[in-house]
Design goal:
This protein has 272 residues and is α/β, with parallel strands linked by helices. Helices cover 44% and strands 16% of the residues.
Length: 272
């Protein structure tokens, strides 16, 4: 568990705000080697909601940043399967490297944090940043709430209707169960409880060489507050893996973590 001395915390906060006023040429000189970060929003969100301040702060510090709109955005409504989302991140990472990023990190908030862990467990990256990760299809409540929709999707696939767009269901702790329109085949890659997207499975697959910054807000949704310590404990014991607990809500986690993300990515970049 990472704790901050008050003076150190003040300096970190200052570092995240004051440099935004400096010329980009000066900021770029302060980051070496140049890190690249793929940023992913939460369920039903967008690059302009909740993660935009984090993405902007990283860019202002000279980082190469790809702030993506993923299939789980409110606009896209799961229009692509799990493997297509992996390819989207593959392409973003290739673009960051072509722009000069020497070290590359995947970062995500909520559902994006879950996906960042999943991606890092299956691909070579320099580190993963999980900001209030959530949305695990294998956890107890989603498994219960979405059981009928998952069964419907399996039935439709078996009937040869897996590519027909239909109404299924999504679940989020703050909103409950809501309608979702996608194809059964795509739906099952994201919502089947046995999907490879499961958080514990991703954590257990994480290479021992990949450090993780796990951000667990103290005021997160109760179910996530309960499960976060055990999930973090299941990660491989990389010396740079850290557990950070800002005293904020689920939605404020990305912005509140800006100083920690900057410090951690710089430490990882310098060490590797």
């Amino acid at each position: 568990m990472l704790l901050h001395h008050p003076i150190r915390q003040w300096l970190l906060t200052l570092a995240a705000t004051v440099p935004l006023l400096l010329p980009s040429s000066v900021l770029a000189q302060s980051v070496s080697p140049v890190p690249g970060v793929v940023v992913m929003h939460g369920k039903g969100g967008s690059p302009q909601r909740h993660v935009n301040e984090l993405a902007a702060a990283l860019a202002s510090q000279g980082y190469k940043v790809a702030n993506l709109e993923m299939p789980w955005s409110g606009q896209r409504e799961y229009d692509a399967p799990l493997d297509a989302a992996e390819k989207q991140v593959d392409e973003a990472i290739a673009s960051l490297r072509s722009q000069g990023a020497a070290k590359v990190f995947v970062a995500g908030h909520s559902q994006g944090g879950l996906f960042a862990l999943y991606y890092a467990s299956r691909h070579t990256v320099d580190g993963a940043i999980a900001l209030a990760p959530g949305g695990d299809p294998g956890s107890a409540t989603p498994r219960e709430k979405l059981a009928d929709a998952v069964q419907k999707a399996h039935t439709l696939v078996a009937e040869g209707k897996g590519n027909d767009k239909v109404q299924l269901a999504d679940y989020e702790g703050s909103k409950g169960t809501t309608p979702l329109h996608t194809t059964p085949a795509i739906y099952l890659t994201w919502f089947d409880p046995n999907s490879a997207l499961g958080m514990l499975a991703s954590i257990q697959r994480m290479p021992a060489t990949t450090p993780v910054l796990y951000v667990a807000p103290r005021n997160d949704y109760p179910a996530l507050v309960r499960i976060n310590p055990s999930l973090f404990a299941a990660l491989p014991r990389h010396p740079l893996t850290q557990y950070y607990e800002p005293s904020v809500s689920h939605l404020r986690a990305p912005t509140a973590s800006i100083p920690e993300v900057l410090e951690w990515t710089r430490a990882v970049s310098a060490a590797r």
